[in-house]
Write a structure and sequence with these properties.
The complex is a heterodimer of chains A (300) and B (232).
Chain A: H1 26-32, H2 46-58, E1 59-63, E2 68-73, E3 82-83, E4 89-90, H3 92-104, E5 107-112, H4 118-123, E6 129-130, H5 138-143, E7 145-151, E8 155-160, E9 175-179, H6 183-192, E10 198-202, H7 205-213, E11 219-223, H8 224-232, E12 240-247, H9 250-253, E13 257-261, H10 266-281, H11 284-292
Chain B: H1 3-42, H2 46-61, H3 64-85, E1 91-94, H4 96-122, H5 125-133, H6 138-168, H7 180-191, H8 194-223
Helix pairs in contact in B: 1-2, 1-4, 1-7, 1-8, 2-4, 3-4, 4-6, 5-6, 6-8, 7-8
Classes of the chains: A alpha/beta (300), B mainly alpha (232).
Chain lengths: 300, 232
């Protein structure tokens, strides 16, 4: 993975220059001509022509920063980002993105991207921002920049209803399943394992639920929304409930989900932060929130 | 089955055409690279042999997923950074379909190289020598003598490569292509009934691989004319 990569600060917005007099380098030339095939038919030296051909082969669209805001989503996270049967992206994240775009007067264009390639795609400038329930964490902040959070749902411990829960120490010896590489795993390893709770990591949260149902686990730590929709409200989950306090500890859980952007996109970050504040106050946020949830997901 | 489920299944079915497209495109790229690679490795010229060996060693030794990230994102980031250094505001966006075809083709070209190399080595040297003795050029020898005979030797390995290649297309969602596995993931996330969609996707893969196996069997029969099946 690209860990230590840092993009240089881009220069200020310049409009595309179409005249060839102002062009210094071949590269610059190609780009100011908007390098797509069909634009490079004029006669130039062979070398330049070859280079042009090479680049145009690579490129589908070379574009300058326009009015569209390209927003990356991974539509596999219902109810935050998912696709309806007719293929339209929808969900809380999508609605919030549209509200933000409306606020900053740009048009949202959604780009679908599998989760594993989310941050590399942002680095590669496939899109401008990620609005896909991405939690703000220390590790991610090393590579990308985040706006303020736009929601923060807490996690909770889930156990059988008849288990008496009175602080972490009271569940010593119990077996808890968590999602690998998740914020909940970090919490479980940091707070539960140290107190004698057995922690088992799984590749997917579904597998945790399957193993709870199979009796191999006593419970899990999960986002209350995720566990509510994915387990507690489903057949087999009736005997379980949320236990203890809402877990907000930033050390483990970060500070919520934010809009991710490349480092150096300071102006855009400011605009989006202002937009989030604006929709919080003008009621748009609440309208979207109430469409999907029974409580305010903005969190503490 | 609800109509909702049906429309998701339809979307996946359409996505499977993309899978087939990417697979076939990548197959063509990998065959070309494979022939070039095999030719390079068997050429006996140190530089070509070194390039061929470097290619197959690197590609076959690194997981597909990592390579895809490196080739696709590494490439784009590199180009865009270069452009920025040159003071340009524009960014280059590689078209995902082409990127998928080229990346997978590039990876499986390495496997094809080894398959073809082995196949060529299986042909008795006397065949080529006889062709040269008749005054055929190297290219003529290749197309008239080597190629028709190597097909038979290459087919088992080729079939394996092809089957793995089809399944490897499930990775291209990483670079922004919505092939059927990714669509199945989306559908199962939206409906929270994963098995329906993943079973369907699995079945589609099975259909495509079964068709390929049938076709390749016919090809094998065609190129095995005049040979006797040995049994122990």
């Amino acid at each position: 993975m690209i860990v230590a990569y840092q993009l240089p600060v881009p220069s200020t917005n310049q409009p595309l220059r179409q005249d060839r007099q102002t062009v210094e380098s071949t590269f610059n030339f190609l780009l100011t001509r908007r390098v797509c095939p069909g634009n490079i038919s004029e006669s130039y030296s062979m070398k330049k022509l070859l280079l042009a051909a090479a680049i145009s082969a690579l490129c589908a669209t070379a574009f300058a920063q326009g009015k569209d805001l390209k927003v990356a989503i991974d539509a596999t996270y219902e109810p935050f980002t998912f696709k309806t049967a007719d293929g339209k992206p929808t969900g809380f994240d999508v609605d919030i993105a549209n509200a933000i775009c409306e606020q900053i007067k740009r048009k949202c264009v959604f780009v679908e991207q599998a989760w594993d390639g989310m941050i590399p795609g942002l680095m590669a400038k496939k899109y401008d921002v990620i609005i896909s329930s991405m939690s703000i964490t220390e590790e991610r902040l090393k590579q990308v920049d985040f706006t303020d959070k736009y929601y923060n749902t807490p996690s909770k411990i889930v156990l059988k209803k008849d288990v008496k829960f009175d602080g972490v120490a009271s569940i010593k010896g119990k077996k808890i399943g968590v999602l690998k590489a998740s914020t909940q795993e970090k919490y479980a390893l940091g707070e539960l394992k140290t107190k004698g709770v057995e922690v088992v990591s799984y590749d997917a949260q579904d597998q945790v639920y399957l193993d709870i149902k199979a009796g191999r686990l006593d419970g899990t730590v999960a986002d209350i929304l995720e566990v509510g929709g994915g387990f507690l409200g489903k057949p087999g989950g009736e005997a379980y409930e949320l236990k203890g306090d809402e877990l907000y500890i930033p050390k483990y859980f970060g500070t919520g989900a934010g809009v991710a952007l490349r480092k150096g996109q300071g102006d855009l970050k400011k605009e989006i932060n202002a937009a989030i504040k604006a929709i919080r106050t003008n009621g748009k946020y609440k309208a979207i929130n109430d469409k999907y949830f029974k409580f305010d997901v903005y969190g503490k | 089955m609800t109509s909702n489920t049906q429309s998701y299944l339809l979307v996946i079915l359409q996505g499977s055409l993309l899978t087939v497209g990417v697979s076939l495109g990548a197959l063509v790229v990998s065959i070309i690279l494979g022939l070039l690679g095999a030719a390079a490795k068997l050429s006996g010229r140190p530089v070509l042999v070194a390039i061929g060996t470097f290619y197959t060693t690197i590609i076959r030794g690194i997981p597909d997923l990592v390579l895809m990230l490196l080739v696709f994102y590494g490439g784009t980031i590199g180009i865009n950074t270069l452009l920025e250094k040159l003071g340009s505001e524009a960014t280059i966006d590689i078209e995902p379909f082409a990127a998928g075809v080229i990346t997978i083709g590039f990876i499986y070209g390495a496997y094809m190289t080894e398959t073809f190399r082995g196949a060529i080595l299986s042909i008795p040297k006397g065949q080529m020598e006889a062709a040269w003795a008749f005054g055929m050029s190297r290219l003529q020898t290749f197309f008239r003598i080597t190629l028709p005979q190597m097909v038979r030797y290459a087919l088992p390995g080729f079939t394996n490569n092809w089957l793995v290649l089809i399944k490897a297309t499930a990775l291209v969602s990483l670079i922004g292509l919505q092939e059927m596995t990714y669509l199945a993931k989306q559908a199962s996330a939206a409906t929270r009934s994963p098995f329906v969609f993943f079973l369907f996707t699995g079945a589609l893969f099975l259909v495509y691989t079964s068709i390929s196996l049938y076709v390749l069997k016919k090809v094998n029969a065609r190129y095995s004319l005049g040979t006797k099946r040995g049994t122990l």
